[in-house]
Automatic annotation (TrEMBL):
Domain of life of the organism encoding this protein: Bacteria
CDD domains, per the entry: TRX_family
Protein name per the record: Thioredoxin family protein
Start and end residues of each Thioredoxin domain: 1-120
Length: 129
């Protein structure tokens, strides 16, 4: 299943701050003006469709609408600081009964390894469907 779009900061906050995650989840934080973000976005979207990660939920959140409005930018900045987001692209990893984990990478193998760790794998298969 392709990534779902989180349309606003409230949706992102609700997802991240919710404690009842029934599935391991990845949230990609990105910007259209960020070349590494643009490079990793289709790769994660493709990963979301693989058999290896069919039990996961994948979301994406684009920060661009928050850059032009000072109040929205301040709200986004405050949320990012509270969560520990510093770089783009970043991924927020959510799992049942675990605190959110933040990684900031554009390397798909690192993301796959982190997703495998969320699932409890010793080693993630690199097979592509």
């Amino acid at each position: 299943m392709p990534m779902k779009n989180l349309p606003d900061l409230q949706s992102l906050k609700a997802l991240v701050q919710g404690k009842n995650h029934s599935h391991p989840t990845l949230v990609l934080i990105r910007s259209n003006g960020c070349p590494p973000c643009q490079a990793i976005y289709p790769k994660i979207n493709e990963l979301a469709d693989t058999e290896d990660f069919k039990s996961f939920e994948f979301y994406e959140f684009n920060v661009d609408p928050y850059l032009d409005d000072p109040q929205l930018d301040a709200d986004m900045t405050r949320f990012a600081q509270d969560l520990g987001l510093q770089f783009l692209p970043s991924q927020i990893l959510l799992a049942p009964e675990k605190e959110p984990k933040i990684i900031a990478t554009s390397q798909l193998d690192v993301i796959e390894d982190e997703l495998g760790s969320l699932r409890g794998d010793q080693q993630v298969s690199n097979q592509k469907s």
